[in-house]
Task: structure prediction
Amino acid sequence: MSNAPGGNAHNTQPVPAAPAKEPAQATAVNSGLTRIEVPTGLSREEMSSLYDGAVEEVKEGRLLKGRIARIGRDVIMVDIGYKSEGIIPADEFGPSLDQVKVGDVIDVLLEKIEDAEGLVSLSKFKADRQIRWEETMRRCKEGEKVSGKIVRKVRGGLIVDIGMDAFLPASQVDIKHVAHIEDYIGHTLEFKLIKINPERRNVVVSRRELLEEERARNRAKLIEEIEEGQVRTGMVKNITDFGAFIDLFGLDGLLHITDMSWGRVGHPSEVLEIGQMVRVKVLHFDRERQRIALGLKQLEPNPWDNIEEKYPVGSIVRGRIVSLQPYGAFIELAKGVEGLIHISEMSWTRRISHPSEVLSEGDIVEAMVLSIKPEEQKISLGIKQTEFNPWTIAEEKYPPGTRVKGRVRNVTSYGAFVELEEGIDGLIHISDLSWTRKINHPSELLKKGEEIECVVLGVNPDEKKITLGLKQLEADPWETVLGTLRVGDVVEGTVSKIADFGAFVSLSSGIECLVHKSQVSDRPVDKVESAVARGQQITAKVVRIDPHERKIALSIREYLADQARAASGEAPAPPPEREMRPEDLPKPTAPGTLGEHLEEALQAAGLSTTGEPAAEEPAAQEPAAQEPAAEQPVSEEQPAETAAEAPAEAPSEGDQPSGNEPSVEQPSGDEAKPEDAL
Result:
């Protein structure tokens, strides 16, 4: 072959011609690629040497110019001026294969001078890529901005055509995280060249850096312009449970869920969606921390303006139940205006544990406006106010003194609640359970669910309370006892309870009296149980009666002493001139023991610490000679002899609870308290 490769615009070098021995006789040979002057009259050896010198620059990996010699179905034969033609796979021409014709000059890259079959292997694809690389290197530098089209997705990112393939990492696609980067395929965008590797011939680009630079410029501009009260346009960037972040194209602002609508919003996604463009009002801007609070509902009128004129107190309104809570139900009167129906305002008579027992979400109901607090945006409503109130006739239906029957609904520490009819309860206070018994807890007499009869003592319709009494079913035995029983009388009774300070004795009338520890025997005792036992029948002498406190004090010791005097022929000890009353108890003004104060009180009443008349007080008649009784000291830890204690003080009628009160555990009736002796 007489043609040799020549120079081209892509680093191909002209093949130097061998020096001609006979320049005047040279013959021009043209391969169409390079013109070489071939002298005439050369021998075969000289022609071979000339050819070898011409092709010694044809090396693998170099760019060459070639002419299409033949077009086959699968390969294209190309003449590159070498001793044999090279071949190129037809699929490297792609869609342009139909436009290729014999004689066209193209750029090729020499891959292998002789492959396994002795053929010259060429590549048009690699030649084009190298040409694009060299062109890109001439016009692009790191840090410069280029335009390109995203063509496909690869592992870790995308491929961008900027004249050659460049790699766009997934982290550099946008400022925010992109879940589906394949959505960008086909888009032509601007990028920044962040890395060029000549050795590996690859380029890395970034769109994120361009966006961040643009955002920094916008941020500076926004900080200068933004003011509270401005209305600006932004894009919903992210949605959370508590609100949405709005991109103001320079800074992000928070639109809290409470500032999205005057009405009820369960979740921000009910109002906004990511990517949505919205107009918002700047509520607050912290320049130091660069935080912006935004509002959406502030662009509309406040429905709470003039709310008292729209819904005056006492008016009947209609609305839809939008929420049920354990304490009540919220009703929507208008968009952005809700009122609360408290659980206590749902029925006059029914005991409702949860609003769902009478209401359901979505129900349309009528209610009365009870109160309005515009500054707190609160409206109190009531359903029962639209119905008849049975308490308005309770006073006529249950006048004081009426005997009624009912069911014990609940037992508490201070009394028992009795249901007279559905929704109408009355309270039997613990002090109204018995005239005579000391009741520590109502459960001693009454059980929950029990049907009983009682007496109406009073009705308060305003507070929805009825006071009942159980003991009023019978006459007061104290009226009979106080008219017949006197100090000095001897009585019989049964020991009903024993305490550390004495024993309680129940008389036949049901009245309980107290025998103090110092009076249970004619001998000193350490424990009351050593002298008397529960259920024992005893005989004792009445030593004190307090009609105001309804207490009676007995003395077994005095009774035994009188028996001893009678056996010896002596007259019994006379009663004191007057009975000791509560006002006789001294009011301590200086430190002293309880025993010392009781001793002073007994002396003031004309009694000694043993319960006998004071020595200086003259007796009714001169007694016979007798030995003095053994002195019984009063313990500082135990009170002196007193009458049985009246029922413990409990909450007054005005303190009566209105709801279902839980029962409270109380000590049994046998557990008397030391103060019972006073």
